[in-house]
Amino acid sequence: MKGLPEINIPPVDAVKIPDVAVIKDDKKKAIWYHLKARNIMVNGLENTTFTKVKGNWNKTSLDIYGKIPRLAAKFDYSFATKFIAFVYNATGHGTAEVQNLQFIIKNNFVANHGFFKLYKVHVTTQIDRAIFDLTNTHSDNTDLAIVVNQLLNESWQEIWPEVKPILENLLRENLVQMANNMLSSVTYEDLFLPEDTF
After folding, report:
1. Which residues is 72 bridged to in the sheet?
2. For the whole prediction, is pTM greater than 0.70?
3. 195: helix, coil or strand?
4. Burial profile 60-96: b = 16 or more Cβ within 10 angstroms, e = fewer
5. What is the pLDDT of residues 105-120, one digit of tens each?
6. Residue 113, C-beta contacts closer than 8 angstroms, at least 6 positions apart
7. pLDDT in tens, 139-166
8. Residue ranges of domains in the chain
9. Which of 3.15.10.30, 2.60.40.10, 2.40.50.140, 2.30.110.10 would CATH assign to domain 5-187?
């Protein structure tokens, strides 16, 4: 998306985010892993749909509901894991995506001179599926990389709790910025029409 300059929304078709690490490193257990990702570019925020907004004037709170059909990332990675007695290390280029992402952004707001500004933001998410592809590896053993990648995808629900806070932080920073940019150009009288309008 090229953005909507008339309501202060910048382009969000590709967003660069800071390096991240997903770690489960109790090496006394049968399975552990350590994934570091850098040079991360995220695509899909441009397809965000805000499905509902609920406001509470007495509590100065605003809940924003929305969905993103597909959110995908490309990155460089280093990965180490152990399955029972088997140890695997690799670096390469990877991708990850989540499908049918639904979110709720709970905010408090201040109203100043006819405009909203959001703060105290909390984000919760739910997804249908996460898919990882770490098979584009610098490792000589590409067959082994395929096997490890298959295991990652089969156990994505166990890995997801480690990834979820990273995703929710991404949404908190980017979607709230989008919302505040828009709200700085649209008065709350225009956002919430009187009931007798309908």
Report:
1. 43, 97
2. yes
3. helix
4. eebebebebeebebbbebebbbbeeeeebebebebeb
5. 888 877 777 777 777 7
6. none
7. 777 888 898 889 889 989 988 888 888 8
8. 5-187
9. 3.15.10.30
